[in-house]
Amino acid sequence: MRVLPTPTRLAAALLAAAALHGAPAAAADEPGWTAGPAAGRAATPRPYFYLAGAAGSVLEDRLTLANSGDRERTLTLRGADAYNTPDGALAVRPAGDGAAAAGAGAGAGGWISFGAATTVKVPPHTRAVVPFTVTVPPAAAPGDHPAAVVATEAGHEAAVRVHLRVGGPTLAALTVEDVAVHGSGGSAVIRYALVNRGNVALAPELAVRAEGRFGEVPGRAAHAVPVELLPGRRVELSEPWPGAPALDRVALTLTATAPGAAPATARASAWLLPGGTAARLGAGLLALGTLATAGLLLVRTRRTRRERPAEPPATAAAPAPEPELTGASR
Fold it and tell me: Domain 174-272 classified CATH 2.60.40.10?
């Protein structure tokens, strides 16, 4: 992991590699100091903190600050919530950002305390070990509560992931939504959303199956999605579809899986047309539709005129009767 400008962004692919192979301590943008988990009993360095306990418990661990430079470093320490950004990256909330911002969950960053050691001076060529505690609230929900420990000096930050799990029932649940295809042939891109509806972090995989007008077309076999999807988060992703046909109407089925979760599917259909063809085809269809509508109106007008019944000739009004002359006196 590494330090980035506030808010700190941690690449999901980097975290996944750290979880599998180990990773060095987080380093500041300027070389000179690093932050990472203190060495445990195992010889293998820890890429992040992993803590687990029941609601109401107090958990402890230690952070190592290493100053390899020639001057003293003054570092400020804090806990922070971790979350997924809309594009799937992991991020750490900046100082002063409330737990409720951007859809934060339980706010586990607020459970982390360094006591009186929130500011630490590290002499040159010295390694300092700082203990901290995580106080889990009695009403904390079971499952994963993503957080981080952040060290700051003069605007530069190093964030170390805290993977915190509260004991109790866990649920792995995943859905895939809003599937769409853009482009065609070698430039086709599939866009979709993944939603973690459970209470544990997920490492999803995705498979793509497609049917064209004349049968199945190449899709994509199940493959890992470079995202660690945190509980309650939704991310919008895209990936290339190298096997997409250049001209066809396809029915697409996406299947997302994750360890412990039931497979989730979503479907969509789309016309795949060569570049520029879509616009020309759309304009042609629009013009054809306009001509067809005008022709239909003309036919209807002529038919109406032809079928309209002839009006009967107007009859002359009968003349008023003349007064009768009888010669009779009045």
Answer: yes
Compute how many other C-beta atoms are within 10 angstroms of the C-beta atom of residue 283.
Answer: 10
Domain ranges of the chain: 8-166, 174-272
- Residue 166: what residue type? V
User: Rounded to two decimals, what is the model's pTM?
Assistant: 0.71
Asked if residues 233 and 84 have their Cβ atoms less than 8 Å apart, the reply is: yes
Closest CA to 159 of 32, 63, 16, 30: 63
Q: What one-character DSSP code corresponds to residue 108?
A: G
Backbone angles phi, psi at 33, to 5 degrees: -150, 155
Strand 234-240 and strand 189-196: the pairing is antiparallel
Please report how many Cα atoms fall inside a 13 Å half-sphere around the Cα of residue 160, on the Cβ side.
27
Per CATH, is 8-166 categorized as 3.30.70.1060?
Answer: no
C-alpha 161: how far from chain center = 20
- List, for residues 226-237, the tens digit of each pLDDT value: 999 999 999 999
